[in-house]
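Q: Sequence in, structure out?
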Amino acid sequence: MHTADPAGYSRHLRFGVSHRQLQTGQPDRDRSLEKPHSWYIDPMPYLKIPKAWDRIKEADTTPEPLYCSRRQVLGKLGFGAAGIKTLMNPLLAGRSEEAFGPYGHVPAHWVRSWNDRFPATRNQKFQTRRETTDEKIFAKFCNFYEFSTNKARVMEMVSDFQADPWTVEIKGEVEKKGKYDLDQLIRIGSLEERLYHFRCVEAWSANVPWTGYPFNQLVKYLQPKPKARYVGFVTVLRPSQMPGQRKPGYPWPYYEALTMEEATNELALLTFGVYGHPLNKQNGAPVRMVLPWKYGFKSIKSIVRIEFTKTKPGTLWSEISREYGFYGNTNPRFKHPRWSQASEIFLNTRERIPTEIYNGYGDYVGHLYDEEDRRFFY
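A: Exactly. Output:
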């Protein structure tokens, strides 16, 4: 489960940054050991700590033509394509899984299996108005209640989660139902990287490069029947590895749903990677949805089941709280019962910026909804 907060843990610190931090720029002291649900964010990732490479002079920089010719040089030395990829990938050259990714949580199995898939070509059609969020910030600021309701602690609790082997069951009103191995699933569509603006219902945001393919490519492959009007998704249920699922209060596993029109919109991305590599565990490994015009809780993580139905499925948040509805589209006009949605905290700079209707993607999805009807926007 992912971004909503009906229990009210974020009543005073819902952005992971306190009012004192926003007003003074000074960090609060770490209370994470005192309060299990504190959302204090360690300021250290945002401090500039001099590294060895900071002392490299500009004059010592490798010329671009020479750098770009490194594949040709390796080829002349007798390394084939696979050997070159191995040399250029620290993990495949012998480093352990714990050393891969900014915090060591990118599953080694999928790095090896998808060496021919990553990095994918960036689709330049999708741009953001501000710079890309640093991966170290986004990977450490995670809503994933299956592990913890404390954003800062999610990263610390995912080490035991096994993201391989992995299968996704396809059910319901489709011709090609069955269980699909993830390596089979990723090869059904054409991977690309898209830079999307990600907006959480808690009023914070980030610009993130995701890798996947449009969900409509999978829909086309599966051949849904005419009766199929909705698509439901279910997250893995694994309490032994996901400590948040062992706690009472939520009807696990997490489940979400879309209308068929939403699921086949070109923005809906079946996602296998982030920042040029397979998904790390805290961001939803090994497969998730990314729906940039909706609040983040709609972008379900660690999917194990996709079902096409003729009747409207339930969604977890809408069934346990009146604060959340089925659609969850971004709209600054309609406030959350406990806070305004007119603006958001941008993680890169911690500045408050205006929120746009449909998170700025109105040209793609505006025709699907009535902007005056609140049921589409919570």
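The domain at 19-49+89-376 is CATH 3.90.420.10 (Sulfite Oxidase; Chain A, domain 2).
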